[in-house]
Amino acid sequence: MNLLDTKTKGKTIQRADWERFFSSRNRIEANFVAAHPNYPAHDHAFMEIQLIVAGSCLQRTSLGDTRPVAGDVYLFRPGAWHAYEEVDGLSLYNCCFDSALLARELAWTVDHPMLGSLLWFIPLTPEQHGVAALHLPPREVRRCRQLLDTLRRLARKDPSVAFADELGLLLQILGLLGRHLPKERIRQTSDRTHSAVAEAIRLIDERPAEGWTLTALAERVHVEPTYFVRLFHKMVGVPPMAYLAGRRAELAAGLLRDSCAPVSEIGRLVGWPDPNHFSRRFREKFSLSPSRYRQRFEAVGRSRRG
Question: What average pLDDT score do residues 84-100 get?
């Protein structure tokens, strides 16, 4: 699992080699790293679940520095950066899946108390910066590893044939993790997701750069704006405009990392033509300005080439 120096319009960026493999094959992928190295700050354009199985390290994230132990699990939404330092015998699994699944095959999870909290409610909370964390007891670690190993073996099959099995395994993994979220973090609701919420998520994910306003979005899903805000917040954990801002920030993070476009142009591309507004909203999501976020990855590239 090494970083590759990839040339993009003359600039070297850092990308995970298995990330490129993942993006070109399946929408759901598992990976096991028996001896994880120190690994510089990086992020992804997809959802990532990380399970620590042995060893230790200093893991840096937008939430701060932690020293994970066996059984610790982290979920990273797109753009949520992390790094591994002071690695000592670290072994872990990664499970990655296309965030587009959240608007399609997994859209129903938004109203499930455990799965909605794991995928939406907790990581989308502003102070979480796209990260959720939990801990599994040893017995559940073994079960999770079995599911991940089965998912790894499916990668050898035709993706069009294996996808249904992969999706089933992913749901089992998510269900196992959801049962071990801190109880105080699980959103308690017995309500079903209003169709307007699912439709709004689909619209935002398909056209995040659209000049959406609360009124325009509510009109598209045929719900009165005030009621729409209450519905969306209850189901997703944040208001619709906050969700839109989060998705734009996630997209901007990928462009900052993988392109040479000026920061102001990236802001315009994701729907924030005002550079100052772009900087404020991006910082709210990742605790770094867009320029500083890009510099972090450029510094990684320089250090590896040096």
Answer: 92
